[in-house]
Design a protein that fits this description.
By secondary structure, this protein is mainly α. The protein has one domain. The chain contains seven helices and three strands. A three-stranded antiparallel β-sheet has the order 1-2-3, covered by helices on one side. α3 (82-92) packs parallel to α6 (140-169) and α4 (97-127) runs antiparallel to α6.
């Protein structure tokens, strides 16, 4: 019941503080794209909760079209587990709860960045169509891996990672709960 009481507040903080809360995830996605996809990504920008990947890809035939493609990704889609993690942490009323919040938040950032990058790659390698996808140089098995990564990053990680982080950070609490006699 306490978790439900905390959830509206943690949701509101997450939603309105998203630009600041998601900035480190944007930095991680920027670093990963520079390390792994420097030929595709010219820059990564953030406006509010939207992370924009600026690419070197052209909208059509690379020789005939001017301009480049940019891909907007809503970072809220990959961080929606943060308010639940925070609500569960606050409801547990454990000592050192600010530390647990900070450690959990830091642990969840790579998962958010993974979702951002997977969404970007799905857009340029699959959703954008054959003229754009052909410019990426990705082969069939790489596009399949991108599709799996996108599904994993969008459907599994945003819900499972916060729950796993909370369990790992609150083992003592769970052990005490398990030790209670049933009523």
């Amino acid at each position: 019941m306490a978790t439900l009481a905390w959830l509206p507040l943690t949701f509101a903080v997450w939603y309105f503080a998203a630009p600041a809360l998601l900035w480190p995830a944007k930095l991680l996605a920027q670093w990963a794209s520079a390390a792994g996809f420097a030929d595709l990504v010219r820059g990564v920008e953030q406006q509010g909760a939207i992370v924009t990947f600026v690419t070197s890809l052209r909208p059509g035939d690379a020789s005939a079209q001017a301009g480049t493609i940019s891909v907007d990704v809503n970072a809220l889609l990959y961080s929606f587990g943060l308010p639940m993690f925070a609500a569960l942490t606050l409801a547990a009323r454990e000592p050192r709860w600010p530390r647990r919040l900070l450690v959990g938040y830091a642990a969840l950032l790579p998962f958010t960045a993974f979702g951002l990058l997977a969404d970007f790659l799905k857009n340029v390698a699959i959703s954008a169509g054959p003229l754009v996808a052909s410019q990426t140089g990705l082969v069939a098995w790489q596009r399949e891996a991108i599709a799996f990564s996108y599904q994993f990053g969008a459907l599994i990680l945003p819900t499972v990672a916060p729950a796993a982080a909370w369990v790992l950070l609150h083992r003592e609490f769970l052990e005490r709960m398990r030790g209670r006699p049933d009523n």
